[in-house]
Write a structure and sequence with these properties.
The complex is a heterodimer of chains A (311) and B (272). By secondary structure, chain A is of the alpha/beta class. Chain A is 30% helix and 19% strand. Chain B is globular, with a radius of gyration of 18 Å. The chains are: A alpha/beta (311), B alpha/beta (272).
Chain lengths: 311, 272
């Protein structure tokens, strides 16, 4: 049986729905010895900012029950060096590449977008509106928001700032620490996003009770891994019902079964994140498992699976 | 670098709370180098989630040994493993110690705690490659008490010059391992020594050893231990502060210990 696993995000057609999540795939090259990168549905890069960022002091990582906290702090070489040093390799892979971008103001977001538009040669953007590990600037001041993703108006202004500069696919990555994810997804849609990616990590904390100190130097970090998956599935389901644009499901996916949950809940594609750290080939194993499931269940097209949850 | 399901060939106690796990893998054993490491998934479930990094104690055709200290959830699982069980292993990872030394080279290996095992592998390699003659490898080991001086038998078999220190004086010099090291460097340095210091162990020891090496003007290769999630450069979690020769806006940057290290030139490390 010929299977059609293709899926669409904005103007980009993906050969299959399995992408790798931002910040979990190094500079991509680290994975080439473990897998055929050309078979991925897409790649979302480590988040890029206008200027280089050193990242946070260590410790940056702590393990939690079926999960982990990270506070990397967006360590990245800055957009100019990304374009000259990293992008040429990514272009050669023959896979849709979504550049994750972030800024502390709409002005910075526009600057990083302009630089990337000038360079070209990639599929689209994922707007990181929800990194929990960096201090946000003036744009969020006075709104009570800790990040763009916490405020529907800020989501709208950030998406608009990038939308007016590009016709490439634009995904808005939303954070889970909100009371109404559907409202945040609608704000992104209303501002012209081609899709929403969710969820980013939860703001979380681990304390060493003996020293009374937070384990992470940043005090808090982003919680990810299998422990967040049921919440991520619920949010994917809520967002997918609220918007017409595609939802990209993320959160603790480590197998085909996990990925299928998100697709059935309404995601048009999924991203594998933390699981890449313990099995570098897990994304393609997930894809193979989705294929096997579709054969077994006699489902010819991925689109027949997307949003098929019976409620 | 390989990802492989490895069989447990042996798993036995070598000191209080310390065990040696022998795992089968021809490819990983062949590529093993002193100071390089593997990431071991202690369970097939998500509990615990992350791999545990271990450097090689030694490697031989077909298998390699890891020495671990039972300290938490992951190592407790390892302790219960029996011959025939299997684990996912990723590696070898990291750069490892540099073992190409000039003629007439001498080596001072300084270890404490679970930093000692990779120095066994290092001493073996220095001897096998004839980089240093047996009598010119001096091994300085430190521990809380004599029962925790790991790998003594392994070093004895190699015929290296052993110098011990314990906090309680139950074996060797009483006090830190830096005392016998400093005595040695003070004697050797005026004679225009060609000594390279190699060190692995607790961070306070690494700092002190690096400072001594600097004072006596000898190169020092330091293997650091930092919390790590992936071990191969995917997460950027294992940051360690190093001098930034490239000189950007700051005078330091965060190196990623799993791929740029875990062995660094002591002079490049910036301790806070």
């Amino acid at each position: 049986m010929g299977l059609d696993l293709s899926t669409r995000l904005g103007r980009v057609r993906l050969a299959n729905p399995v992408l790798v999540a931002s910040g979990t795939f190094g500079h991509v090259k680290e994975f080439e010895r473990y897998m055929d990168l050309g078979k991925l549905g897409g790649i979302v890069t480590k988040t890029i900012t206008v200027k280089p960022r050193l990242g946070n002091p260590p410790p940056r990582i702590v393990e939690t029950p079926s999960g982990m906290l990270n506070a990397i702090g967006l360590q990245n070489p800055g957009v100019e060096r990304f374009i000259s040093e990293k992008l040429p390799y990514l272009r050669k892979l023959g896979v849709p590449v979504f550049v994750s971008v972030m800024g502390y103001s709409t002005g910075e977001l526009a600057a990083v977008t302009r630089a990337l538009e000038k360079a070209g040669g990639f599929a689209g953007y994922e707007l990181n509106l929800s990194c929990p590990n960096v201090a946000y600037g003036t744009k969020t001041a006075g709104t009570g928001a800790r990040m763009f993703a916490h405020d529907a108006k800020l989501i709208g202004s950030a998406v608009s700032a990038v939308r007016r500069l590009t016709r490439r696919t634009l995904l808005a990555k939303l954070g889970p620490d909100v009371s109404d994810i559907a409202r945040m997804a609608r704000a992104a849609e209303g501002a012209g996003a081609d899709g929403v990616s969710l969820i980013n990590t939860f703001v979380a904390m681990v304390i060493d009770v003996r020293t009374r100190r937070p384990v992470l130097a940043n005090h808090t970090g982003g919680l990810s891994g299998p422990c967040v998956r049921p919440i991520a599935v619920r949010m994917t389901w809520e967002a997918a019902r609220a918007v017409k644009i595609p939802v990209v499901g993320i959160g603790g996916i480590a197998s085909a079964r996990d990925a299928l949950e998100f697709l059935v809940a309404g995601a048009s594609a999924v991203q594998v994140g933390t699981a890449n750290f313990t099995n570098p080939a897990v994304s393609l194993e997930t894809l193979d498992g989705i294929r096997a499931f579709m054969r077994r269940e006699r489902i010819a097209r991925l689109s027949d699976l997307i949003g098929s949850v019976k409620t | 670098m390989y990802r492989e399901r490895c069989r447990v060939l042996a798993n036995g106690r070598v000191a209080p709370g310390h065990y040696v796990l022998r795992l089968g893998s021809a490819r990983i054993a062949r590529a093993a180098g002193p100071g390089r490491f593997v990431q071991v998934l202690c369970a097939d479930s998500s509990e615990p989630l992350l791999g545990r990094p271990f450097s090689f104690l030694t490697a031989r055709p077909g298998s390699f040994d890891l020495l671990y200290h039972v300290v938490g959830q992951g190592t407790r699982i390892l302790q219960g493993l029996q011959k025939g069980d299997a684990l996912w292993v990723l590696g070898p990872l990291g750069n490892g110690f540099g073992t190409k030394l000039g003629p007439g080279a001498e080596a001072a290996l300084v270890g404490g705690g679970v930093g000692i095992p990779p120095l066994v592998h290092l001493a073996e390699t220095l001897l096998k490659t004839r980089a240093v003659r047996p009598g010119k490898i001096r091994v300085f080991l430190g521990a809380r008490d004599s029962t925790l001086l790991l790998c003594l038998k392994d070093f004895r078999k190699l015929g290296v010059d052993l110098r011990l220190a314990t906090d309680d004086g139950s074996r060797g010099t009483k006090g830190f391992v830096t005392r016998p090291l400093e005595r040695y460097l003070a004697e050797a340095a005026p004679a225009g020594t060609r000594t390279t210091v190699y060190t692995c162990g607790p961070t306070p020891m690494l700092k002190a050893v690096g400072a001594l090496a600097e004072r006596y003007g000898v190169p020092c290769q330091t293997s650091v231990e930092v919390p790590m999630a992936c071990g191969f450069g995917a997460c950027l979690g294992c940051a360690i502060k190093v001098n930034d020769a490239a000189g950007s806006s700051t005078d330091f940057r965060y190196a990623i210990a799993c791929c740029e290290g875990p062995v660094f030139d002591a002079a490049a490390l910036v301790w806070d």
